[in-house]
Amino acid sequence: MAHIPDGILSVPVLLAGAAIGAGGLAIGVKRLAPERIPQVAVLSGLLFVAALVHFPVGPSSAHLILNGLIGISLGWAAFPAIFVALVLQAVLFGFGGLLVLGVNLTNLAVPAVLCGLAFNAVITARPAWGVAAAGVAGAFGVAASMVMVALSLAASGREFLVAAQLVLVTHLPVMAIEAAFTAAAAGLLLKVRPGFLGRGAVAVLVLAATLTAAGPALAHKLTLFASTEGAKVSGHAYFSGGDRAQGVMVTVTDPAGAVLHRLTTDTQGAFSFTATSRADHRISVEGDDGHAAQFTIAATELPDNLAPGAPAPDLQAMIDASLARQLRPLREQLAATHDKIWWHDVVGGLGAIIGFFGLAYGLSARKDKKS
Predict the structure, then answer these.
(1) How many CB atoms lie within 10 A of CB 209?
(2) Is 312 exposed, middle or buried (0-12, 13-18, 19+ CB in 10 A)?
(3) Of 103, 109, 227, 343, whose CB count within 10 A is highest?
(4) Quick check: is 77 in a domain?
(5) Is the same domain home to 252 and 301?
(6) How far apart, in whole angstroms, are the C-alpha atoms of residue 207 and residue 146?
(7) Is residue 52 domain-shared with residue 149, that is, in the same domain?
(8) In this structure, is residue 140 part of a structural domain?
(9) What does the alpha-carbon distance between residue 129 and residue 109 come to, in Å, rounded to a whole number?
(10) Cα–Cα distance between 120 and 239 in angstroms, integer?
């Protein structure tokens, strides 16, 4: 889980992440040569799309990160590349958030820069070790990012300690995948274009894009849906791609924040409970990797007879319950459609990345021409 959502981290962690992220972004922009802007744009687009490719790992899910690959290709320019991708992912798909943007940028870009620095040092001293160094960079980028995510969660409260530990475990497969892929891509480039890595490897991008396009374009945003049938409340948690969230914790609270129920989703991501009072029920679900979602059952959706001293349910109450049962599939389908990742959003995000960096390139070229 490279995208920590808003509302989880403590203020000191947010401020520290924002300061480090802003500093790294300033250095990256300052060191970015105009001729490398198109390469940064394309690799930023790669990172933007890579987050849509996810696969289940136990009760949670993981997705491609590729910060090791971006680091050995761009160096300090990884900061602006990752920053633009994270902003668009937050705005278009709800991945992460804007308040936590600095922390997410720091957790991804700092390991990327370290990978780039270490890779350049290795291939300068030992060119024959290039493929192995790239593989290590691919794995290290994921590992270091997950360690930083875990530290961010742990520093924000003891309640996130379990999630912090599981973040590392769930990304072990990603480390292996990215190590093998980064090594293969580097091996190809070192054969056909020796010394090309470290100066913006567009050929790496082409190979990476092929791998990304071959995977299922499934987003990992956690979503929650619930409805009522009389006093019974049932629902399920699922990822935007449609996969159900298995074995995740569900907490139900009243308007005052008192816990009413603690549940765990089944193998289909489903849960249910019986309301005992006619009040708003706030349902929260949190995955082991830090993703969270909320849904509120309004008091008006619950039977009148749950209120103290209310009469037994009448014919109208039974009709309302039957109507709610009939409308549940339609409401569920509308909710799933709302959270679905549409390809026009993906294309629009890529267009925004190209347009942003294109504008930066044009302004830079104009400035150089005047000087």
Answers:
(1) 15
(2) exposed
(3) 109
(4) yes
(5) yes
(6) 25
(7) yes
(8) yes
(9) 24
(10) 38
CATH number of 315's domain: 2.60.40.10
Give the amino acid at 252. Answer: V
**Mean pLDDT computed over 171-190:** 80
Q: Give CA separation, 271 vs 125, 243, 314, in Å.
A: 57, 15, 28
Q: For the chain, how long is the longest CA-to-CA vector?
A: 84
Give the single-character DSSP code of 179: H
pTM over 0.70: no
Contact 71, 115 (CB under 8 A): yes
Mean of all residue pLDDT scores within the chain = 77
- d(C-alpha 100, C-alpha 86), whole Å: 10
Rounded-to-integer distance, Cα 359 and Cα 181, Å? 32
Domain assignment of residue 3, yes or no: no
- Per-residue pLDDT of 93-134, as tens digits, reads 777 788 999 999 999 999 999 999 999 899 889 888 888 998
Q: What's at 88, amino acid-wise? A: L
As a whole number of angstroms, the distance between CA 199 and CA 196 comes to 6
Q: Which residues span the domain enclosing 61?
A: 11-219+342-370
